[in-house]
Amino acid sequence: MKNSIVKLFGLLAITGSLFTACSSDDDKKPTSSFVVNPLDFKGNINDGEVVLDANTVYQLNGALVIRDGASLTIPAGTVIKATGGTAAYIAVAQGGKIFVNGTATNPVIMTSGVATPAPGNWGGLVICGKAPINTVSGGTSTAQSEVADLTYGGTIANDNSGSIRYLRLEYTGANFSAAKEFNGASLFGVGSGTVFEYVQAFHGSDDGFEFFGGTVNTSNLVSFGNEDDQFDWTEGWNGTNTNWYGKISFGKGNRGIEADNYEFGFANTPISNPTINNLTLVGPGSTASSTIYAENDAIKFRRGTKAILTNVNITGFGDAFDVEHDETIAFVGTTLKATNVKYTDVTNKTKGRTTAGGSATVTTIADETTTATGAGNGATAPTWAAGWSTGL
Q1: Number of neighbouring beta carbons within 10 Å of residue 129
Q2: DSSP run (H or E) holding 360
Q3: What is the per-residue pLDDT across 135-152, written as a single tens digit (0 to 9) for each?
Q4: How far is the first Cα of the chain from the last one, in angstroms, to the nearest whole number?
Q5: How far apart are CA 43 and CA 380, in angstroms?
């Protein structure tokens, strides 16, 4: 009897260990067939999960594309240095996922690999999701991204392209032509299942962040010294956002925000309609040279966009709110409105222009206050940006 009991316990122990091993293996994501070469980091991740090593510096020399069903995980402190202009970028295709796991004290940095870094040294980060866009009215269309040539758009509002936290994107914006340039982060039809927070776009040659439709929500974004707009949206983007800080610097820039519904269909649906709570925009000064800062607008609303902004701090612009086109003007004061706005060194608080080019009164777009803190600290860098951002 004793021998039988011993045998029974032995069998249970072996069986238990087998179950444990199977359970552990099942919890692991499959290893990718992609071979990482840190000195020549590029190619297509077609399957499984690729996990980078924070102790290794990766030289991005071409396009790195995360394809449908694959994922890339980047641990805190990882540095990726890019060279190659328009040929070098990181893109997430529909169905792919990226996980950037930076921290406040140890961010992930994607930057230039050139000895003397400059705007436009590489492409930037491109994410393509399956959330609705309005290039065809109705929100069921798809399109090809203007950079990376990947499909985006669809009908899955809560599509998930991964999670991005504490990331710096530096010296991006390589341009194919005057009309086609990379941004710091280009979000094409990205869904609300994607996490996008604590991200900085620093000294790029085009926009810091641009949203092409989709439903992604964001928080704690810093756009600093990008040479076109600090933030830009179009193609029916709808998202809820908290804590945006944008500042024009380095003697070049256009607008704090450039906001459209859709260039080729001002009334196309879904209509761009984001919410932004706690926004700071810092410009070059209300009297900055028009030969350098042709627009000098804090915010340009046009082409039929809606938006709701609260707790807004605007400093150093010729125009705070510039509203253009009849479709956009029709929303002013209701579905296009900013509440609790503080102006400092601003020449014109509001300016309106009809589609035909005539002037329009749009004063109801904003409610003024003297106490708005914006992203947290007025025109000064917010405390939540300390430690992981640069240049502030």
Answers
A1: 34
A2: strand 359-360
A3: 999 999 999 998 889 999
A4: 77
A5: 41
In terms of Cα–Cα distance, which of 242, 361, 235, 237 is closest to 311?
Answer: 242
Task: Give the pLDDT score at 19.
Answer: 33
- pLDDT value of residue 293: 78
CA distance 16 to 129: 42
Closest CA to 45 of 33, 54, 58: 33
Please check whether residue 87 is in contact with residue 60, taking contact to mean a CB–CB distance below 8 angstroms. Answer: no
Six token digits for residue 18: 């087998």
Torsion angles phi and psi, residue 26, rounded to 5:
-65, -30
* pTM (2 d.p.): 0.92
Residue whose C-alpha is closest to residue 36's, from 48, 18, 24: 48
Q: Are strands 175-177 and 180-181 parallel, antiparallel or unpaired?
A: antiparallel
Q: Nearest CA to 241 among 294, 309, 173?
A: 309
pLDDT along the chain (392 residues), means of 10: 36 36 49 95 98 98 97 98 96 98 98 97 98 96 92 98 98 80 95 98 97 98 97 98 97 95 98 98 91 86 98 97 98 98 98 97 97 97 97 94
Which 3 state secondary structure label does DSSP give 122? strand
Place of tokens 């196309």: 268
Give the Å distances, CA to CA, from 126 to 63, 190, 239.
Answer: 11, 10, 18
Are 159 and 131 a contacting pair, CB within 8 Å?
yes
**In the block, residue with structure tokens 């014109």:** 348
